Amino acid sequence: MGECRQGMRGVCAVMASAVFAVLAGCATQVFNSPTNEPLAPSTPPDMGARTDVMRENSIVLSLSGGGLRAAAFAHGVLSALQSLTTTDGDGDLLDDVAMMSSVSGSSLTAAYYGLYGREGLARFRQDVLLADFESGMRLSLFSPTNLFRIFGGGLNSREDFGDRLDRTIFHGATFGDLYRRAGPEIRIQATDLYYRVPFPFFPPLFEILCSDLSRYSIADAVAASMAVPVLFAPVVVRTYPESCKPLDPETARALARIRSHGSRTLGAIAKATAAYNDRSRTHYIKLADGGLTDNFAVSTLSISRLAYGTPYAPMTDHDAVRIRRLLVVVVDASHRPNGDWDLREAGPTGLDLALSGTDAAVESAARYAADAMGNMMREWQDAVIAFRCSLSPAEVKRLGGPPRWNCRDVKFSYATLSIDQMKSPLRERIGAIPTRLTLSPAQIDAAFEGGRSGLLALPELRFYLKDRVRPNRGEETDG
Hints:
By secondary structure, the chain is α/β, with parallel strands linked by helices.
């Protein structure tokens, strides 16, 4: 419409509103129908998921968003762990990975590894990172049809991305298939757009929805985690009030604790879960990119700890007795500031302005969440030690502890790995990679090498590797 002069801004605003109204009126509604199914008599306990996931030496990875750049970066991290053999001859550090929490692009890596294991890791670059997902998607903002789709809900729906993931990447796999493997716990995270809270795909939440996660498509969960607003129509899941059963006592206690807690974060989650478990009517939950509420994927740990309220949460009591060394690594492949408008008086404008505002909100919230997680680690370690040392020998035996056992032999550590930690010129090469779903082989290899070399350089990882060896039996004491 051209540039509005100072005195004409009101007229321009009316004209713009009229154009938007016409576009919205002409728009074809774009939406995804829910594919989750209700609870059934055949639904297994905990929907088939293991509840005890920690090993004696465990690594938890929280993987950030960032399109295929983040997926390749996370792939490099897993490959680095695979390259590190343990001093006690148990294997390599990939075996120590007990949990992976992911948002957005890194959910491709987490879900693929969780489903296909080491064999999948070897073919991930060829089958996933080089797949050119954008070739089958609507991307042009200059097409009138696409403008109508944007105003109707989003440029792309399940048929443009989710179906392709299901056919060519995950081959129809469900969470039940994922849970039947012996690998790490995988927590894929999206965002509930209405209540503006994280939405993790894990059994306790689906129990509240009265829905069977074991029959839900892995591809749909990954698509939800990656559903950037406007580019994608939200992925939809529904509640099934007619299929509700009494909540598991542990889940019911967690909900009660959430609702009584003074935290504003838990207050927002309490509103959402109350709606999800409303047995008087069906709710449709609209899911978008998990990075909108937690771009470092740490909330499934920190919120679970607050919700369950036990000294060892979010671990089980068996996990707390088994654990000796725990390393939590936040893998940050998010985009660094770019452009040169900080060197000019004017700008940013247009798309740069919109993206900069979104990035500021997302990254600010993510940094706060990561800092809170880091601060929580010491309290978590101390609480686990206090719990272990309160147990009688009979309780230790019941929970799977060894006959001779040092209840204080526990150490939790926390590390962050980000693109900023890379050495030049690799740092600049990775920083220039856009957040896209199609990248060149050179870009993929740079992001992979950043994740691999960055993890190997972490001092916390070297300390963990050195410290994971159990002391001689003669040095152990009864718990």
